[in-house]
Design a protein that fits this description.
hydrolase, ATP-dependent DNA helicase RecQ, DNA-binding, DNA binding, single chain, 2 domains, about 50% helix, about 475 residues, Rossmann fold, alpha/beta, 23 helices, seven-stranded parallel beta sheet, six-stranded parallel beta sheet
C-alpha cells in the first residue's frame, strides 16, 4: 500500500508536509534518522505512521510528563486505544500492571529516567520494537550534561542489536546534532534538516536604563495590546509578582514555574489553551508540548541563558501561520542574572571532594543529599560524571561547563547589542543560511511593531461583533 493511502485512511490527510515522507521512507528502510522539523510541521506523524505500517511496538522517549500525557490523549482522541504513558502519574499498582502488559501496547511513551529502571529495561528487552523515538532530542545535549544525565545513557541502554532510532527536534545547532548522533550510538543516520526560520514571527528588542522602567513599559504594553501571549522571566518570584500586577490591571494572567504543584500547572496550561487566560508569565519550564496555535506575542522580560532556549521559546508563537511578534527586553545587569541561573545547579569542586571522601570511607554518597550538602539535581549530575571519569577530570568538566554557560549568555548579549539583522543572527547560530527575509523582518531591518500588534480594544470589539454562529464555531474549533 502506498504511503499516501495510509496517510489518508489513518490520519485524514491528502498529502505529506515537507520532510515527513522522506523521514518515514528512511525509517521503513531500517535507517536511523535525525529530523529537524519546526514546531507545527507534524513531527509525531513521522513515528505514528511507521507504527501502523510495521505493526510492532513503538517506544517514544519524551522529556516531560505533560508532553507525554498530551500526546497520549491526542492519539486516543483519534481512536488509538493501544497507547500508554509509563510515568509517575501512575501509582505503584498501575505501574506494575502496565509494565507486566507492555507488549500489548502499540505506542509506549516513557521518560529517560523511567527507561533506566531495571524492571522496565528487562521487560523492554523481551518486546520486539519496530522503532525507538527520542522526541525533543535536543534535550540530550541541552539537559544531559548538567541536568538529566539519563539522557546520555539512552544509547547504551539498547546496545548494538536494536531497532532503528528516530531523533526528532525543532531546533539544534551542529554541535547538538553531533551530540544526538554520538550519545544515541546512531549508525550513519539519515538527516533531514529543515530551516529553523519562522518567517511569520517578527523580532524586536528594547533596552532600558533600569528594571523599573522596563516593567513600566511591559505593563503598559500588555494593557494596550492583544494576546494571547507568554512573558518569559528568569525567576519564579518574578512570575508571581508580574502576573499579580497584570491581574490588578484587569488582565487575565497566571504565573507558571517548575516549583508549582503538578495539578496547578496542568490547570493553568488548560486555561491558556482554551483561551480563559490571555497571558502566562513563566520560567522556561512552560511551553514544551503546549499545543496552542494562536499565541500572538512572546515577550522576554529578562534575557534567556542561551540562544537555544530563546529560539525554542519564541517558536511557541504563530503556530497558526499568522503574524506574531517576539520582543526581547533588556536592562542593565540582566546578563548577571542569566549567568547565575545558568550555573546555579552545577556541582562545585568541593562536592567532588565530598563525594570521593564518602567512597573512600565505604559509605553511600547519597548521604550528601540526606545531609543537605548538595541539591538533588546537582547530585544526579555529579553521580553520573563520577561513574565516567576520575575526580580531577570531573572537576575540569564542571569548570568547562561553567565557562561555556557564561559564553552562551554573551552570545545572547550580542543579539541585544548588535545592529545586524536579528533573524540572520539566529539562523546563522544554528549553522544555517537565511535565503529570504520577510516583510517587517526585525527591529534592525526597520520593523514597525505598531503595524503588527492588534490593539486590545480592537480585538474586544471584533469579538463582541461576532455572530452567535461564529462564536459556536470558535468554541468547537478550540475543543477539537
Amino acid at each position: 500500500m502506498q504511503l499516501e493511502s495510509i496517510l489518508q485512511q489513518r490520519f485524514g490527510y491528502s498529502s505529506f508536509r515537507s520532510g515527513q515522507k522522506e523521514v518515514i521512507e528512511q525509517i521503513l528502510n531500517g535507517k536511523d534518522v535525525i529530523a529537524l522539523l519546526p514546531t507545527g510541521m507534524g513531527k509525531s506523524l513521522c513515528y505514528q505512521l511507521p507504527g501502523y505500517v510495521l505493526n510492532k511496538t513503538v517506544l517514544v522517549i519524551s522529556p516531560l510528563l505533560s508532553l507525554m500525557q498530551d500526546q497520549v490523549d491526542q492519539m486516543k482522541l483519534f481512536g488509538e486505544k493501544r497507547v500508554i504513558a509509563l510515568n509517575s502519574f501512575l501509582n505503584k499498582e498501575e505501574k506494575n500492571r502496565v509494565i507486566n502488559g507492555l507488549e500489548q501496547y502499540r505506542f509506549i511513551f516513557i521518560s529517560p529516567e523511567m527507561l533506566a529502571q531495571r524492571q522496565v529495561q528487562q521487560k523492554l528487552n523481551r518486546i520486539e520494537l519496530s522503532l525507538i523515538v527520542v522526541d525533543e532530542a535536543h534535550c540530550i545535549s541541552q539537559w544531559g550534561f548538567d541536568f538529566r544525565p539519563d539522557y546520555l545513557r539512552i544509547g547504551e541502554m539498547f546496545g548494538t542489536s536494536r531497532s532503528p532510532i528516530l531523533a526528532l527536534t525543532a531546533t539544534a545547532t551542529n554541535k547538538v546534532l553531533e551530540d544526538i548522533e554520538l550519545y544515541l550510538n546512531m549508525k550513519e543516520p539519515f538527516k533531514y534538516i529543515h530551516s529553523v526560520d519562522r518567517p511569520n514571527i517578527h523580532l524586536s528588542k528594547m533596552s532600558f536604563s533600569n528594571r523599573e522602567e522596563k516593567l513600566e513599559w511591559l505593563f503598559q504594553h500588555v494593557s494596550n495590546t492583544a494576546g494571547p501571549g507568554i512573558i518569559y522571566t528568569q525567576s519564579r518570584s518574578k512570575t508571581h509578582s508580574i502576573s499579580e500586577t497584570l491581574l490588578q490591571n484587569g488582565i487575565s494572567a497566571a504565573s507558571y514555574h517548575g516549583g508549582m504543584d503538578l495539578l496547578d500547572r496542568q490547570f493553568i496550561q488548560q486555561q491558556f489553551i482554551e483561551g480563559t487566560l490571555d497571558w502566562i508569565v513563566a520560567t522556561n519550564a512552560f511551553g514544551m508540548g503546549i499545543h496552542k496555535q494562536d499565541v500572538r506575542q512572546i515577550i522576554h522580560e529578562s534575557i534567556p541563558s542561551n540562544m537555544a532556549n530563546y529560539m525554542q521559546e519564541i517558536g511557541r508563537a504563530g503556530r497558526d501561520g499568522n503574524d506574531a511578534v517576539a520582543i526581547l527586553l533588556y536592562s542593565e545587569h540582566d546578563e548577571e542574572l542569566a549567568k547565575f541561573v545558568g550555573i546555579d545547579d552545577l556541582p562545585l569542586e568541593q562536592h567532588v571532594d565530598i563525594f570521593e571522601e564518602y567512597q573512600r570511607n565505604g559509605q553511600d554518597a547519597t548521604q550528601m543529599l540526606k545531609q543537605g550538602e548538595i541539591s538533588e539535581t546537582a547530585f544526579r549530575v555529579l553521580n553520573y560524571w563520577m561513574e565516567q571519569k576520575t575526580p580531577n577530570e570531573v572537576k575540569t568538566i564542571f569548570q568547562n561547563m561553567k565557562i561555556e554557560k557564561m559564553q552562551k549568555v554573551e552570545e545572547v548579549m550580542k543579539l541585544i547589542t548588535s545592529d545586524t539583522c536579528m533573524r540572520e543572527t539566529l539562523v546563522h547560530y544554528f549553522g544555517q543560511t537565511l535565503n529570504d527575509k520577510p516583510e517587517q523582518c526585525c527591529i534592525n531591518c526597520g520593523l514597525d511593531l505598531a503595524q503588527l500588534l492588534i490593539a486590545k480594544e480592537e480585538k474586544n470589539l471584533s469579538s463582541f461583533s461576532m455572530t452567535w454562529q461564529e462564536r459556536i464555531t470558535n468554541l468547537l474549533t478550540k475543543k477539537s
